[in-house]
Design a protein that fits this description.
Layout (H helix, E strand, L loop, with lengths): L1 H9 L6 H7 L2 H13 L1 H14 L3 H8 L6 H14 L8 H30 L4
């Protein structure tokens, strides 16, 4: 017992002892894995899309000022914001680039949703 106390005092792990015990508890990793598996494929695809564009779905929606994923509304807002931020009319290339990345991110999300809908339709009904 004394040795454990001395070891904790000189340990390089700066977390409190209860946190050290929690991180080595086998149930923590099992629960974490189960939670990750429960997110399903859709969450992974969406996360992958975020990593590719560098924007989350929420950020992209804010940039293009859309609340729901309507292809028509996305395209309309994209075209307007792209024209307004054109450098030749005094706009910002940086903002125009953000608009393009947001549009790409939302297009990817629409593609993922369409693919999921096709897969749901193809599943045999029980």
């Amino acid at each position: 017992m004394v040795w454990e106390g001395l070891h904790a005092t000189f340990s390089t792990d700066r977390r409190p002892p209860y946190a050290q015990r929690l991180s080595t508890h086998p149930g923590i990793h099992t629960a974490s894995r189960a939670a990750a598996d429960a997110r399903g494929r859709a969450g992974h695809q969406s996360a992958a899309a975020s990593n590719l564009s560098g924007l989350s779905l929420q950020e992209a929606q804010q940039i293009l000022n859309v609340s729901k994923l309507s292809p028509e509304e996305i395209q309309k807002n994209y075209e307007h914001l792209f024209k307004v931020n054109d450098k030749s009319v005094g706009g910002s290339f940086y903002l125009q680039s953000k608009v393009v990345r947001a549009w790409e991110r939302l297009q990817e999300e629409l593609r993922i949703q369409a693919q999921e809908n096709r897969e749901k339709e193809q599943m045999p009904k029980t």
